[in-house]
Design goal:
Blueprint (H helix, E strand, L loop, with lengths): L12 H13 L4 E2 L5 H8 L2 H4 L11 H16 L3 E7 L5 E10 L4 E8 L8 H16 L4 E7 L3 H9 L3 E9 L5 E10 H8 L2
Parallel strand pairs: 4-5
Antiparallel strand pairs: 1-2, 2-3, 3-4, 5-7, 6-7
Helix pairs in contact: 2-4
């Protein structure tokens, strides 16, 4: 799991419990299970999809992906993670979203990717907007922090188009302990509601 946002919030016990319950429900998303392991492996084995994402389990093998799916599900039961997949018309894995949640801080982070043939079609911006709405409206979070590689222009454009505030650069830590400089943004629920108020 990645690091929580730089801004530190404290959730009340009631707020924390509501977030945990909402994460366990994962309403509106297809939660990744054992039946999606092969599809995720195929998706992430494409460097055009996985290279910019620092927190994926590497190397990409059936075992590492199966463990990632199982670990994510265990974290979902704790109210700390949702690993979701999007499927194409043929039922193949076309993308994934991973919501990392810190219920005690009413905060979260989002990572994800789409299949290479679906990139640069505008769907990424729609997906980011849908995910942000889900995190604020359904999971009841108050803050989202996002990172992107310094050269990941496509993600940076989607993040900024969604209204996130740039907060400079941070050191992101990969699962193997190595680090990567990342661009970093935050958006809180009040800012998001102001942008989407009719």
């Amino acid at each position: 799991m990645s690091s929580p946002p730089l801004t530190v919030l404290r959730a009340s016990p009631e707020e924390e419990a509501a977030i945990i319950a909402a994460v366990r429900r994962a309403e509106g998303y297809v939660v990744a299970g054992p039946e999606h392991v092969d599809g995720l492996l195929k998706l992430l084995s494409d460097p055009k999809v996985s290279d910019p994402i620092y927190d994926l389990p590497r190397p990409f093998t059936r075992e590492t992906i199966a463990n990632w799916v199982a670990d994510s599900e265990a974290l979902r039961q704790q109210g700390r993670c949702i690993l979701a997949v999007t499927l194409d018309d043929d039922g193949e894995v076309a993308g994934y979203s991973r919501f990392s949640i810190w219920p005690e801080r009413a905060s979260g982070e989002l990572a994800g990717a789409r299949r290479a043939d679906l990139q640069n079609t505008g769907g990424g911006k729609v997906g980011v907007s849908r995910s942000i709405a889900f995190m604020f409206e359904t999971l009841h979070l108050r803050l989202i922090g996002l990172t992107a590689a310094l050269d990941n222009v496509r993600s940076a454009k989607s993040i900024e188009a969604a209204g996130f505030r740039s907060m400079g650069e941070i050191e992101s830590v990969r699962p193997d302990g190595t680090t990567r400089r990342s661009l970093y943004w935050e958006l809180d629920r009040d800012e998001w509601e102001r942008m989407h108020r009719l």
